Amino acid sequence: MSGHPVTVPGGDNIKIEAHVVEIAPKSEIGKHSHPYPVLTYVISGSVEVENEDGSKQTFSAGQPFIEDANTWVINRNNSDEPVKFLAVLYADKDQETITLKE
């Protein structure tokens, strides 16, 4: 590490979060969206991402993917094993990083 500060668009008004997310077998994270793109890396298992247009893509361990900003998606685990992925999210300090659709 260089010890130098990292500059991001929005400067001091942006928060960054990183989460290891686990989805149980045959489960899903319901329809949700994010205010900014989410950088994601699959640690183990496979996750199916269903976009608001109905298209689906599956990502497996070792693969990165990006969830677009302001787009409704569903993350689904269709397998018999848990899936884990790292999600790096950012948003304005006064915003939630995720919105769940009811």
| Strand count | 9
CATH architecture: Sandwich
- Parts with pLDDT < 50 across at least 5 consecutive residues: none
- Could you state the CATH homologous superfamily? Jelly Rolls
Overall pLDDT: 91
The name of the CATH topology is: Jelly Rolls
- Could you tell me the radius of gyration in angstroms? 14 Å
Supply the helix-strand structural class.
mainly beta
H/E topology pattern: EEEEEEEEE
Which term fits the overall shape? Answer: globular
Textual characterization of the structure:
- With 102 residues, this protein is mainly β.
- The chain has one domain: Jelly Rolls (Sandwich).
- Helices cover 0% and strands 55% of the residues.
- The protein has strands at residues 14-23, 27-33, 38-44, 46-51, 56-60, 64-67, 73-77, 83-92, 99-100.
- The strands form 2 sheets. A 5-stranded antiparallel sheet has the order 5-4-7-2-9, with no helix packed on it.
- The radius of gyration is 14 Å and the shape is globular.
- The termini are far apart.
Question: Which tags fit this structure?
Answer:
single chain, 102 residues, mainly beta, Jelly Rolls, 5-stranded antiparallel sheet, 4-stranded antiparallel sheet, 55% strand, globular
Give a short overview.
It contains no helices and nine strands. It is an all-beta fold. The chain has a single domain, classed as Jelly Rolls (Sandwich), CATH 2.60.120.10.
